[in-house]
Amino acid sequence: MSQKPCIGVNVPRVDAWDKATGTAQYTDDLSLPGMLHGALKRSPLPHARIRAIDTSRARALPGVKAVITSADLPRVRYGNWRFSPNTQDEYALAVDKVRFVGDPVAAVAAVDRDTAIEALDLIQVDFEELPGLFDLDAAMAEGAPRIHEETAGNVSVTREIDYGDLAAGFARADYVRDDVYLMPPVSHAYLEPCSSLAQADSLGRITLWTSTQTPYIVQCLLASVLGLRENEVRVIKPYVGGGFGGKMELRSWDVCAAFLARLLGKPVKFTQTRDEEICAGRRRHPMRLRSRVGFTKDGLLLAKELIVHLDGGAYNSMGPTATFLVGNLGAMLYRYPAYRYRGFHVYTNNPPAGAMRGFGAPQAFFVAEGQMNEASADLGIDPIDIRLKNAMHPGDKIRGFATIGSCAFTECLERVAEMSEWRRQRREMRPGRGIGVGCYSFVTGGNFNWFDTKYPFSAAEVRAYADGAVHLLTMAADIGQGSDTVLQQILAEDLGLRLADVTLYAADTSLSPKGDLGTWASRVTFMVGNAILDATRQIKEELFKVVALKFDTNVVHSFECKDGMVRVKGRPEKAVPFGEAVAMVQSLRRGEPLIARGSYTPRDMGLVAPTYSFGAQVAEVEVDRDTGRVRVTRIHTAHDCGRPLNPQAVEGQVEGCVQMGLGYALTEELVMRQGRTLNASFLDYKIPGALDMPGIDSVCVGGPEPKGPFGAKESGEGPVSPTAPAIAEAVWHATGYRARRLPITAEQVLRHLETNPTANDDRRVKP
Amino acid sequence: MSQKPCIGVNVPRVDAWDKATGTAQYTDDLSLPGMLHGALKRSPLPHARIRAIDTSRARALPGVKAVITSADLPRVRYGNWRFSPNTQDEYALAVDKVRFVGDPVAAVAAVDRDTAIEALDLIQVDFEELPGLFDLDAAMAEGAPRIHEETAGNVSVTREIDYGDLAAGFARADYVRDDVYLMPPVSHAYLEPCSSLAQADSLGRITLWTSTQTPYIVQCLLASVLGLRENEVRVIKPYVGGGFGGKMELRSWDVCAAFLARLLGKPVKFTQTRDEEICAGRRRHPMRLRSRVGFTKDGLLLAKELIVHLDGGAYNSMGPTATFLVGNLGAMLYRYPAYRYRGFHVYTNNPPAGAMRGFGAPQAFFVAEGQMNEASADLGIDPIDIRLKNAMHPGDKIRGFATIGSCAFTECLERVAEMSEWRRQRREMRPGRGIGVGCYSFVTGGNFNWFDTKYPFSAAEVRAYADGAVHLLTMAADIGQGSDTVLQQILAEDLGLRLADVTLYAADTSLSPKGDLGTWASRVTFMVGNAILDATRQIKEELFKVVALKFDTNVVHSFECKDGMVRVKGRPEKAVPFGEAVAMVQSLRRGEPLIARGSYTPRDMGLVAPTYSFGAQVAEVEVDRDTGRVRVTRIHTAHDCGRPLNPQAVEGQVEGCVQMGLGYALTEELVMRQGRTLNASFLDYKIPGALDMPGIDSVCVGGPEPKGPFGAKESGEGPVSPTAPAIAEAVWHATGYRARRLPITAEQVLRHLETNPTANDDRRVKP
To answer: Which residues contact A288 (CB under 8 A, 6 or more apart)?
Structure first.
């Protein structure tokens, strides 16, 4: 009797029940005997020298157990780019000066949260305010004050990419665009605010439960800050309510919780407020991008020059990666014969930016797609046609960086055109309505080792039991994206089992197999999936041996795990139930259980990623000419994620991306005034809700990626990029308004409409 | 710089800080969101048919979420002797009839504990009372009702041991004793009552936190009862507050917690009351032992016949083992040229007895030592001298059962004689005071596989890290005896590290290496210690390779891990710090971590145990002639535990044994009336407290056991046996009263003194 496959079919999320019933425990749900509650005193000033901190009144408050400042902590700087120690520029609590509004200055531990918060006001910090630098030009200006003493000019990181003959390319161009785009800071807006709970044992070793995407990174960096050995710190990831890149670093509260737990001999928990999350959490990099691009009159790309200044805020965080990725992604998706990139990561006194879903891509593609759309209009070539002319294809190479594996970009474009009835709608839409297209590509996993790990990039341990159950151990961190489900699917499928045969134990740095770099760069399905297959290969080898022995098979035969059996291929009668075969292996080994560790580290796959996703999206909008308000009425999206292992989960990821892209396009922006975030709540910071969502037609396009587990590539990040440029183009189509900054507010559209009330109305009948 | 050794020195317990500060979480300390509280409805009758159970009123009580009876549960019987399924005679909730006062009949889950308890009274059970069988003879009488339908005569297990020519032995004997001893039921009196917390996932798989000595046994049996696969049940042992053999089985509340958690989709916790523990927890087997023993007139043993009837109570529990062990131990300690043993495990309507510290030995040795003391008096040979004549020596064999390895029994006797100034005191003690000796031997680990495991008996996983830390994973269950400490000592010592370099993760059936049979038969230090050494051997092999490579050593050299270094033996300058050597191995393996799994299963070591402890103890008493009250004034004890790995911990174990032996001798007895336990609280059931304890001189004697890890044997169980016979002999020495039953109550002594006021006073000047 053949089993339902576990791969390529819709499988309910394994965490659904726990989350729906409230059984799921997030970090803030945890409690330990004698637990204390922590809170952070944060800087009210964007840039200031700390003359003195008086904690005596706070310490005197009944219920307060300790108040610490940087004077108490080991003076160790940290940052994710461990490979380049000079980029590690952050302390858990500010040393000598504060650099942004929200910079942590002191931490309190008290018997309850209210007392801890009350104590914050009693901490008196004597600040000497320093001039603040809030925009790129001010920060880079000659003679500007240094935000970090060791960084003259406030440019902490630069990146360059050069290939092809740029000058020749532009010289040959019939049409050159040179535009400046401004991209806003936006918030991850994950639903679970960060939380950490630390417990110290009698030797001062730490167990930290924390809301993180990267247990291993937190483990290593926390150890270095506390002067512990890495393996004296255990990090456990409970359920995590979203991360989107904002939870992949060691953070102040992790350090303070652990330090205070050691100091006081009691567990200490810190949980951030939404206000803290929005004002002082990481954010998507605001950027200024100048892009010069040259085409032939037929719309063929010849050269591109991209100069990007990232407002990194007060610390580097993941900025070094952002500075590279935006440039790298600027060269993706289309064939650019010549490319020049210059990226500058600039310190300002704004809150630090970090990694965020699609890292670098939403900015890079808003520019690339915006210019493609503008060129299409100017050259009189349909936006989809001009893309098809320039689209990347399988086997394309970006010298020194990447070789494109599977790539169904062309099919994605053709598919969204068909789904949206593009050609008809583009021509016939009535005034006030518009349709536009945006495209993207994204990395599937990262080949870079900025964390300087000495372990495999990902690992999986598979334990097969005589009862037919298998256990999967991995450090992979499901933060809501569904990787726990898909990893179990991969394991079950490869061993010919059902999903219910698999139990997963994940994301505990002491018990999970080492290593795993965490959840970012859309790496989990691909990399941990491959590690699982490395383990199952070993498991199957052992199982096949005993089956060969049992049936004394002719040596030409091969074997398979299928339908719960281990069997001789093509000889269905020569089969042993999976558990029975495991028992035979165990017997052969005098009781030793059948366990295999697999790992995966990408090698010889270029600088960036083993493979890439591609996709195209069409947005339809309706613009209210009286108010300028843009309403997105429909999204058509085609995504090449290789083989979708769990189509429903892929669809969920794509829809989540559209939601985030929609906010980026129309409503989200952290409004800054002199380093202060003005809209620090979900009332004022508008993420699209369920009622704001358009209908979405979503399809997966393309075939399996040969390097991917069962053919999979990524689906969680790529589709976040096309929505904004597609909407921008649709708005232009509807109104003639060209957005070169985000979000596209009603005010901007209205201002345009006031002077150009019928712009583009005449385009309707033309091609 | 050479490090302090980790072995053979006093090392503070690794759990001391957690326990002293209240950080330690026992099962009942745990809480989960939405957790419900369970309680058991227990039979008020010793033997009755269940006509009907009406749970409607209980179910109607607000706050009650479910009430279950055996009708709800799968009808699966369980018991530890999985190897002999016919011995598995227990259901989680009584089916059709109850067999003892306390037999669980129904279980309630409610929103809080008070409600659950209130609901118990609302459950109406319609019982048809059956005749109860409360003593051995009644139970075995012709025509007695059957307690279990399938067991005619109520004898559920018999055991026989025969060797040597018994008839010839007795024929040659100059002196034959034939005595009947009666041993009482006593309680483990562990401080932590049993508690279980179960959580089910959406597929019905169970995680059970439970107060257990045997996570693996609970896992397997619970799975079988619930119809799950073993590896769909995860058992985690939190801190456990004592077990002493009473927590080594699957129990009703484990099953009910898990079943209700599955049924209700919420976590459910059951915690026993002290009353339940005393009345319906396991207990030490009450036994009737008839022992016939023959000596030459010089005091040389010639033959022994032992017939033991165990009152097993209503179920087998660990009775099959008890029935064997008491007979096996009856042949230990001395050289019996001929031996005949017949053991009968009898069902009665008393509460079931189970395993308890020293399992079978306190009874066997109270008889053997009592008879030895009586023979000594009758034959006019000093009690120590008569023992020396008959003592076992290294290399002695009990045909078919055991070969004695290391054995310092003679030295123990000599040492306690010296410590107690035996010869002088025995002669000169003033009337009303007495001195007596008792001895023992005990198993170190068990070779038997009554649980029918397919895994190694014990396992250890060692993970060595580049930071010089090592992690130890094991399923071994520290229940308060200190094994977590000693296992870390073994690991640190063998890798040349400090104790602080080791972190232990233990006793989680899903994450610990499989397998481990649990904490019983004094097996943990010996068996898991050997498994650790199997793992470290593999670790060292890898480390030595890279050091050989680094120094390109002459092939004749060997290597060692010492003082935190991996080095060439005899070439201190050719050394690499441990962590650095690990990093080299990891580099050699392209990042794969250095991990080894070790295991240990005793093979070719006889039927019973790989090796045995031995010891001798002298008690000094003072008897109040007006009240008959016995006060123990001093205990001298010499113990052969091989090499004591942590002398302070051994001393603690020996003193704990003395405390338990003291209670067995003088104050402890579960007073039974028609199957009811009358003294169900620590007010009425008297365990000796700190103020009741005599001064104890405790020494370890003997050399390392070659098979033991660093030479260790057992220390946690053996010394529980000699205290009672030593005290009994001292009481006889003081008063002439011969106790052939326990406890030795003031009433008994007083009754004796009333008729023999000066008995034995005249013995003072004689030898």
So the answer is: A136, A180, A181, A182, A183, A308, A309, A311
